[in-house]
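Long-time lurker. I teach an intro course on protein structure, and each term I like to show students one example going from raw sequence to a predicted 3D structure in token notation. This year I'd like something fresh instead of my usual example. Would anyone be willing to generate the tokens for the chain below so I can use it in lecture? Attribution to the forum is fine with me.
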Amino acid sequence: CNTLGCQDCFFVFLDIRFEPEEESRLYYNYRGESYRLLREQYEPGYSERNSAIKGGVPYMAVVESFILDNLPKKAIEDLTLLDFGGDTGVNTPFKDSVRKCCNFDISRGQETVPQESERFDLVVLANVIEHVGDPLALLRTVSKFLRSDSILYLETPLEKLIEDSETRGEPPNLTEKRHWHEHVN
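-- Reply from a regular --
Happy to contribute to a lecture. Here you go:
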């Protein structure tokens, strides 16, 4: 594969696109023990970082604060929320505070997507888009659950390669990208 990137916005992506069947195989037993051990082999410290995120408290406080700062003046307890791709819901913001919370785990694919006629005040797409072979198709699917006044919270991880390039103020050195894991965008 080739690692490609934009010299203007520092976007880095893989030139291989996964088909849905390939994605399904890639995410089979996602974050299970065999997956964790394999990731740890290529990324020492993966388990510890993942455990810290799953703890949720400091990370979730930052996410919720950001969302609150950008929400129209509406009480949290009156909101409807869809966490699209939210794993087990451990990092779903406001999950215990909103009027209605739906969680769709994109990696399992066995849950039922909410009715297409259903719209939500807040749709969360956190740490998902970098996992799919066709991000535009995912955004089109998610847009079906938005009204014109809905808020879409979209989050992607800041990989060290990008963080280092931003610190230096120059495009990423793509020769530093030695391996790709499940982040294909």
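Some talking points for your students: Residues 16 and 162 are 20 Å apart (CA to CA). The mean pLDDT is 78.
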